[in-house]
From TrEMBL, chains A, B:
<protein>
    <submittedName>
        <fullName>Flavin reductase domain-containing protein</fullName>
    </submittedName>
</protein>
<dbReference type="GO" id="GO:0016646">
    <property type="term" value="F:oxidoreductase activity, acting on the CH-NH group of donors, NAD or NADP as acceptor"/>
</dbReference>
<comment type="similarity">
    <text>Belongs to the flavoredoxin family.</text>
</comment>
<dbReference type="InterPro" id="IPR052174">
    <property type="entry name" value="Flavoredoxin"/>
</dbReference>
<dbReference type="InterPro" id="IPR002563">
    <property type="entry name" value="Flavin_Rdtase-like_dom"/>
</dbReference>
<dbReference type="Pfam" id="PF01613">
    <property type="entry name" value="Flavin_Reduct"/>
</dbReference>
<feature type="domain" description="Flavin reductase like">
    <location>
        <begin position="10"/>
        <end position="157"/>
    </location>
</feature>
<keyword id="KW-0285">Flavoprotein</keyword>
<dbReference type="InterPro" id="IPR012349">
    <property type="entry name" value="Split_barrel_FMN-bd"/>
</dbReference>
<dbReference type="GO" id="GO:0010181">
    <property type="term" value="F:FMN binding"/>
</dbReference>
């Protein structure tokens, strides 16, 4: 039997992404967002949705760019904190003990300890009720060499990105690889 | 050391979502998309990006709605197949042996065997290079009663959504819950 949950922002999986920006004082700030995803392959673009009231919102608009730092499961506590505190009244990097690093292609900081970083140039905003979707063109993706597979590609089990479940509001690790895309279903073609 | 991958659509995690629509002949069709995510809480909206050339694209525009069926890991083969074949020249439900069910609130079919279904009314399209992001207002979320937790909420380990890793192009299961959001990082506040 299916149970109906009504009109709710509920879907699995959602990411746990830490959005980096410099505020008007030049202070490195981060906030956590679960409403986001890749939106286009060419140009490569990614979208993240923020409330307009967020301190990060005006920072990103002013500097025209942001980063996404993908936390691994070992940093769930810090990622959770980044989603609760506001950068208006505190320095979240200092409190967490994590290190801001300046991005290479955009005017924004990222979390040096996290395994995967996406640098984004803001190219479009889409108003959607209480959220604004900021669409960034991906300028570069940086991945820690320790989490690459034998082919030199990022290995999702090694990156171990934090996954968020809306509704139950739990964080999860990623599990085992169960097969290759564009291959597992070939026998049905 | 960080390795730079350049300007690529590469970020972890991405979902593996099966998009359902009826085509001009009334045939139930499905396609798999990994470029998507929740985009707004109020109204609750979700975005999925398709190429305009996809058979599903004109179907969704014509009927003004679509569904997202979230495959569990046990259906990785069928989900992979749905992403490779075109509904223009075959009946993907018939080939896969899965069952189309008519959605309750939108004019679109979903996959009856999958554990989580999101019914979406198309409210906006965003052009982004070779992809169009279709934004749907969530009309209802249905979840199989067998995959709810003790509080009656969908349990992400039990739903077992398929997770996709761009780059390596691997499918993964979701791992263990490692804590509660808005709680794990409270001691840093």
């Amino acid at each position: 039997m299916m149970k109906s949950f009504g009109s709710k922002p509920l879907a699995f999986p959602t990411p746990t992404w830490v959005i980096g920006s410099y505020d008007a004082d030049g202070k490195a700030n981060v906030m956590t967002a679960a409403w986001g995803g890749i939106v286009s392959s060419e140009p490569p673009c990614i979208g993240v949705s923020l409330r307009e009231s967020r301190h990060s919102y005006e920072s990103i608009l002013a500097r025209g760019g942001f980063t996404i730092s993908v936390p691994d499961a070992a940093h769930a506590r810090e990622a959770d904190y980044f989603g609760m505190a506001s950068g208006r009244d505190r320095d979240k990097f200092a409190v967490s003990g994590l290190t801001p690093a300046k991005a290479e292609f955009v005017d924004a900081p990222y979390v040096a300890e996290f395994p995967m970083i996406i640098e984004c140039r803001l190219i479009q905003s889409v108003e959607l009720g209480i959220h604004i979707q900021l669409i960034g063109e991906i300028a570069d993706v940086k991945v820690n060499e320790d989490v690459l597979n034998a082919d030199g590609k990022p290995d999702m089990e090694l990156v171990a990105p934090l996954i968020f479940a809306p509704g139950a509001r739990t964080y999860h690790t990623v599990g085992k690889a169960i097969g290759k895309a564009f291959s597992l279903g070939k026998d049905l073609l």
